[in-house]
Write a structure and sequence with these properties.
With 358 residues, the chain is an alpha/beta fold. It has helices at 10-19, 24-36, 50-59, 119-122, 131-144, 166-177, 197-206, 220-226, 235-246, 268-278, 303-315, 339-342, 344-357, and strands spanning 66-72, 78-83, 89-97, 100-104, 108-110, 125-128, 153-156, 189-193, 210-214, 254-260, 283-289, 319-322. The protein is 37% helix and 18% strand. 49% of the residues are buried. Bound molecules: S-adenosyl-L-homocysteine and iron/sulfur cluster (SF4).
């Protein structure tokens, strides 16, 4: 198979061009064509000599995942279902807001970590996405959305645990940050992790971007039930890893994500315990109303409960935001992600439908 240029960050592309006997500045030109202009056809790269265009056409390809579903909610949230191979599809979600547009990107098909409240986890693990499949979500979104540079922020909060796929995630992040590619600032690219400590340390060295940590519980006992990886990486060690990450992070705080589960982790006692955690790491809290999916045992906390929980934290000096639920009708709220992906039967049905149509 010819190499896919979406798999190559700037250094890898330069090496590939060197192997073709081409100069590094040609690699930069092509990087700009592919990522800045969203060009997928070598023949249209008009400032390259014709013979180089032909040579590239023989030696390489530019291939993003295939779109098999595209839905837009009333609030403008747009979700694509992307087929990555014969058996797997992942979601990418675009959330437009005033002055910015956030793309929520998947990093794996399925997830091995099996958090109790997560529909992706319920699917089991299928495989890591390649760099091309990860950055390809951004490449596609920029091509499909209106306006110049519609995606201003990227969050790796789609399907999968990005820190268990760093070999492919890091080159994708480098492309997102590269001035010859997407040119996003480190502060506008956020990796979300369930707390895979070695991955946090590696990311800090390889490519420090903004970090969100899925905390979801203030005690090890409760967190083990909700986020099983806590057995391996308990809260105390996780907080130490957060402090280490902050030494190199582009922002001076960690975002703690906290899914609000009715009667499970949303009591006053939990809020007070969380405030004690917040005092140990420079942090902000993001409360995420639980997104239900078929056959889940959990319910979303009522709005008054979420408000009271936020108030307790705020009264103790913690910065808190509550995530607005977006794109409910298309199961696209970022961070539940795969409400739609969740249910295998529904997913494969929509895949089959999309295939039948195409
Ligand atoms: N694996 C990474 C990133 C993907 S999940 C992680 O766990 O952080 C992105 C966020 O969505 C996480 O905070 C996750 O806990 C949250 N999430 C998963 N399922 C959810 C659901 N059903 N409702 C609300 N948030 C959910
Ligand atoms: Fe995996 Fe994140 Fe879902 Fe947990 S919440 S199962 S780590 S995708």
């Amino acid at each position: 198979m010819k190499p896919n240029l979406l798999d190559l960050d700037a250094a890898a592309l330069a090496a590939f061009f060197a192997s073709l006997g081409e100069k590094p500045f040609r690699a930069r030109q092509v990087l700009r064509w592919v990522h800045q202009s969203g060009e997928g056809d070598f023949a249209r790269m008009s400032d390259l000599a014709k013979d180089l265009r032909a040579k590239l056409g023989h030696a390489a390809r530019i291939e993003a995942p295939r779109i098999v579903g595209d839905s837009i909610a009333a609030d403008g949230t747009r979700k694509w279902l992307l087929k990555v191979d014969g058996a797997n599809a992942v979601d990418a979600v675009f959330i437009p807001e005033t002055g910015r547009g956030t793309l929520c990107v998947s990093s794996q098909a399925g997830c091995v970590l099996d958090c109790a409240f997560c529909s992706t986890g319920k699917q089991g693990f299928n495989r890591n996405l390649s760099t091309a499949e990860i950055v390809g979500q951004l490449w596609l979104a920029n091509r499909l959305l209106e306006g110049e540079r519609p995606v201003t922020n990227v969050v790796l909060m789609g399907m999968g645990e990005p820190l268990l796929n760093l070999d492919n995630v890091v080159p994708a992040l480098r492309l997102m940050l590269d001035d010859n590619a997407y040119g996003l600032s480190r502060r506008r690219v956020t990796v979300s992790t369930s707390g895979v400590i070695p991955g946090m340390d590696q990311l800090r060295e390889a490519c420090p971007v903004a970090l969100a940590v899925s905390l979801h519980a203030p005690t090890d006992e409760l967190r083990e039930r909700l986020v099983p990886v806590n057995r391996k990486y308990p809260i105390r060690d996780l907080l130490a890893a957060c402090r280490r990450y902050l030494e190199k992070a582009p922002r001076d705080f960690i975002t703690f994500e906290y899914v609000m589960l009715d009667g499970v982790n949303d009591g006053d006692a939990e809020a007070r315990a969380l405030a004690r955690i917040a005092a140990q790491v420079s942090s902000k809290f993001n409360l995420i109303p639980f997104n239900p999916f078929p056959r889940t045992e959990f319910r979303r906390s009522p709005p008054e409960r979420i408000r009271r929980f936020a108030q307790i934290l705020q009264a103790k000096g913690v910065t808190v935001t509550t995530r607005r639920t977006r794109g409910d009708a298309i199961d696209a709220a970022c961070g539940q992600l795969a409400g739609a992906v969740a249910d295998r039967t529904r997913r494969s049905r929509s895949l089959r439908l999309a295939e039948a149509r195409s």
